[in-house]
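Forwarding these from the shared drive since the link keeps breaking.
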Amino acid sequence: MGNADLKLLYDIMVSYYGCGFKEKTKLRSVSDKKAMFAYIGRKLGASYRLIAEEIGYMNHSSAVHGEGLMEDLIAMDPSFNRQLNEIMDEYEFRKFAGILV
């Protein structure tokens, strides 16, 4: 898995967005968060399988699709890039400071 802490990443994203996103739904607001989670998880070195298990995807192929979707969204909408950077900064800060939850 590399050194990715997916539970920490999920907690940071819940705090950032103000809501959880593990439920099974096709709502865009939830699917974008899941895609962001998959994208960041892969950047941190987590496997698709572990990402899928943590976020409630049906299988690893959903994590693959989510990662690709986020790459497209980042290219089209600068707000996704800002969100990505803010979440990654918080993740790196908590890992460095030893704040795990």
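-- next protein --
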Amino acid sequence: SETERVAVGAPIDAHFWKGALEFFTTFADRCHHGKEEDLLFPALMAVGVSGDCGAVACMLEDHEQGRCMIQAMRGAVDDNDKRALTAAAREYSRVSRRNVQRENEELFALARQVISRETSAGMLEAFRSVQYNRYIELARELCGRAGVPFHGAG
């Protein structure tokens, strides 16, 4: 991966990292996390799920930690700091994987149990209105540059 290349001494590829940070900021955070924070979490809280503890609180904590790691990576790229970039990228990866696991094992199961079909249908329509194509292509390009397989949609 690009992180491991940097970890063993390769120069920071600023073009790659700026593209990756755009993807993390816009697609992963604003689009994906934004849908959860703007639509799913309020729907869960409207039916009595606490936003202060449990699945929603854990997801919000993951989102905030991810945002902090994005900022740390951005600063490390700007400062050409390989050690800081490697540490922040590894932590971002860890937090992102944990977040996906929590979504799949806790959050979505909870949502299926407590949110009505009508509310779910409305959220699904709102989710579909988000345009992903540009970010799917960016992810495909970044995977190609990093030499890793692309497993996304599109």
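The mean pLDDT is 88. The longest helix spans residues 14-46.

- D.
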